[in-house]
């Protein structure tokens, strides 16, 4: 009688221990703070769900959530179609294909704080190329004082930084399509739109699902770039959920509300990501069933 060998789990044990220390333990600490209050000196007392109730009735949190949803929606609406368009127009073979892949990868290699610093300088009216040019053209542009200027700059910065990820994933999906599909489409005299609609787009659904999920999660928890660029201003114009959470936890040192806030923040990301995954998976199954 054949018996299963479970010793392979020992190979996974170091990873489980590492995850426990890097994720589970900090999470449990946050949960502990979210149900307690303190007046200092490491003296805590039970607060129950009071902090969660306060956050649910906090206009500040709902405003930050609204800004975050608008930002993530705009980012997805721009970066996904733009990434697909770039991937479709990238060379498939030869030296230029390698050059394009390297160039598309460069923005992804730049650290987040450096990205914020680059655009902070780039948008300045006195020394920045973008700010100086717009000011010379008579356009009133100041991302530190203007609401629309700040939003436009943050969005363009994120599009510049992360569209490459969508483009590279879409390009990988396109390269996996066998040439036989294109040959059959050529024989049938299919239009360029028909090739994209019935061949390329269905074959890219898997990688596009990953791209949408990654970009949503990254954009929904964005912190470093807008913080370095605008500091959440002007006013609270670009104070997204992550910036508001840091201000609450470190700036005001309200550990209880900040812990409850962070858990609700985490739950929102998980729920919306799960909805995205289910919708995209169902679309993929419908396409395969046709």
From TrEMBL:
Q: Where in the cell is it found?
A: Cell membrane
Regarding the membrane, this protein is recorded as: Multi-pass membrane protein
A Pfam family matched in the record: BPD_transp_1
One GO CC term on file: plasma membrane
Q: Which residues cross the membrane?
A: 69-88, 95-122, 148-174, 195-217, 258-280
Q: What's an example GO BP annotation here?
A: transmembrane transport
Question: Has the keyword Transmembrane been applied to this entry?
Answer: yes
Sorted alphabetically, the keyword list is: Membrane, Transmembrane, Transmembrane helix, Transport
Question: What does the similarity note say?
Answer: Belongs to the binding-protein-dependent transport system permease family.
This one is known as: Glycerol transport system permease protein
- Species source reads Palleronia aestuarii
């Amino acid at each position: 009688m054949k018996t299963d060998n479970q010793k392979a789990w020992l190979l996974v044990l170091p990873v489980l221990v590492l995850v426990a220390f890097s994720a589970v333990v900090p999470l449990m600490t946050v949960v502990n703070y979210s149900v307690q209050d303190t007046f200092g000196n490491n003296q805590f007392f039970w607060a129950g769900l009071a902090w969660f109730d306060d956050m649910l009735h906090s206009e500040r949190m709902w405003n930050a959530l609204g800004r975050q949803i608008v930002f993530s929606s705009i980012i997805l609406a721009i970066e996904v179609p733009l990434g697909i368009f770039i991937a479709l127009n990238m060379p498939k073979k030869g030296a230029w294909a390698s050059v394009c892949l390297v160039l598309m990868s460069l923005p992804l290699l730049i650290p987040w704080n450096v990205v914020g610093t680059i655009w902070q300088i780039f948008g300045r009216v006195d020394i920045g190329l973008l700010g100086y040019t717009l000011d010379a053209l008579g356009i009133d542009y100041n991302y530190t004082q203007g609401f629309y200027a700040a939003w436009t700059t943050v969005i363009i910065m994120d599009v510049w930084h992360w569209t490459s990820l969508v483009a590279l994933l879409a390009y990988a999906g396109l390269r996996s399509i066998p040439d036989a599909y294109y040959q059959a489409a050529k024989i049938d005299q299919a239009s360029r739109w028909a090739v994209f609609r019935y061949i390329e787009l269905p074959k890219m659904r898997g990688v596009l699902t990953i791209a949408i999920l990654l970009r949503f999660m990254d954009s929904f928890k964005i912190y470093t770039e807008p913080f370095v660029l605008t500091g959440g201003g002007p006013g609270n114009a670009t104070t997204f959920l992550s910036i508001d959470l840091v201000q609450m936890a470190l700036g005001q040192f309200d550990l209880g509300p900040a812990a409850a806030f962070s858990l609700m923040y985490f739950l929102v990301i998980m729920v919306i990501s799960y909805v995205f995954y289910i919708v995209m998976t169902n679309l993929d199954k419908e396409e395969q069933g046709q």
